Amino acid sequence: MNLLQSWLESLDYEYRILPSCTHYQSPRSSCRECIDQCPEQAIILKDGKPFIDTVKCTQCSQCIVACPVQAVEGFLPKRTVENNQLIVSNEDVISLKELLVYYQKQVTTIVFKHEDVSDEWQHMIKNANEALSELGEAAFAIQFNKAVEETEQTMTRKELFSFWKKDVKNIAKEMAPAKWRFNQESLNLTKYYPDHQFIEFSLDTSTCTLCKACEILCPKACIHLTDTHFTVAPEQCSNCSLCEDICPEQAISITSKISPVTPINYLLQENECTSCEENFKTLDEAEHMCHACRKKNELSFYNRN
Ligand code: SF4
Ligand code: SF4
Ligand code: SF4
């Protein structure tokens, strides 16, 4: 098995950005998570879309963890996990998102090889334990073990081999390195904590025109507009900011905040427009002019002044 493992690790593959990236959905996307997290500055925006410079990329996988819509393809970060303990070194600080995913995989103890834990790690553990407290979970247990040795078996490799065992026939048919890339969905934090939401969604009901742009573009299908309601499932939201970026009325605001799930449900109202006398739908019961007439009025006001 070790020979096979070494061979797999020596395979040459390149990380790439998938078309599910928010910049492919709209040029107004402001997401820079992968760009900001890359320690090698290997990701740049090219023609408005993120591009990985494979010469600079060291395949550290930080971009994969950071992406809110799982749009970076490559291997998940290699971590050492033994007996549900995550064994770490000062040099390799693991992100909050990844720690929270490990926690739900029953990896609730972090083992340091040395007692002089770096400031960065202390800060990260504090953040992780605060987040766990907000999620109603116990804190990570911390241990020190100088004797702990690096082992070749890691969680990501285990995932690979269990996947490989299950699908050995299919893999044999289509043997190619790209086929062994991991499922980025395993880093979709929201699916591990279904009773909580990681964002606060706020909608300005006086400016929303019910244009449905947010509903159409949300990659997590959080937003639904029906004939009677505007609803949001905040527990599905991965904080990609796309709805906030593309709303033509700047009616949406998303902020990071952990809390128990509170579904959002706004009732639509039907009013008669005082200008064109047609019925129209609105979220604002005080609104008595339809969107088209309101815009026409605003334009003629600007033209007069
Ligand atoms: S983090 Fe993901 S969505 Fe954001 S720019 Fe990078 S690939 Fe696109
Ligand atoms: S919140 Fe913005 S994007 Fe969504 S329906 Fe309202 S106006 Fe359109
Ligand atoms: S609700 Fe907005 S921020 Fe959340 S996943 Fe959908 S588009 Fe992204």
Characterise the protein shown here.
The structure is a single chain. The chain has 305 residues and is of the alpha+beta class. Among the domains are: 190-267, Alpha-Beta Plaits, CATH 3.30.70; 270-304, no CATH class. It is 30% helix and 21% strand. It has helices at 2-10, 22-25, 33-37, 62-66, 96-104, 119-134, 155-166, 168-173, 213-217, 242-246, 291-304, and strands spanning 16-17, 43-46, 49-52, 72-73, 80-82, 85-88, 109-112, 141-144, 196-203, 223-225, 229-232, 252-260, 264-267, 269-272, 279-282. The protein has a 4-stranded mixed sheet, with no helix packed on it. A 3-stranded antiparallel sheet has the order 10-11-13. The longest helix has 16 residues, at 119-134. It binds iron/sulfur cluster (SF4) (3 copies). One iron/sulfur cluster is lined by residues 203, 208-214, 247, 249, 251-252. Residues 17, 21-23, 31, 33-34, 50, 66-67, 69, 71-72 line the site of one iron/sulfur cluster.
Q: Short summary of the structure?
A:
Keywords: 4Fe-4S, Iron, Iron-sulfur, Metal-binding. By secondary structure, the chain is α+β, with helices and mostly antiparallel strands.
Using brief descriptors, characterize the structure shown.
305 residues; Alpha-Beta Plaits; 4-stranded mixed beta sheet; 3-stranded antiparallel beta sheet; elongated; binds iron/sulfur cluster; 4 iron, 4 sulfur cluster binding; metal ion binding; 4Fe4S_Fe_S_CS; metal-binding
Topology of helices and strands:
Blueprint: H1 2-10, E1 16-17, H2 22-25, H3 33-37, E2 43-46, E3 49-52, H4 62-66, E4 72-73, E5 80-82, E6 85-88, H5 96-104, E7 109-112, H6 119-134, E8 141-144, H7 155-166, H8 168-173, E9 196-203, H9 213-217, E10 223-225, E11 229-232, H10 242-246, E12 252-260, E13 264-267, E14 269-272, E15 279-282, H11 291-304
Parallel strand pairs: 6-7, 7-8
Antiparallel strand pairs: 1-4, 2-3, 5-6, 9-12, 10-11, 11-13, 14-15
The structure holds iron/sulfur cluster (3 copies).
One iron/sulfur cluster (SF4) binds at residues 203, 208-214, 247, 249, 251-252.
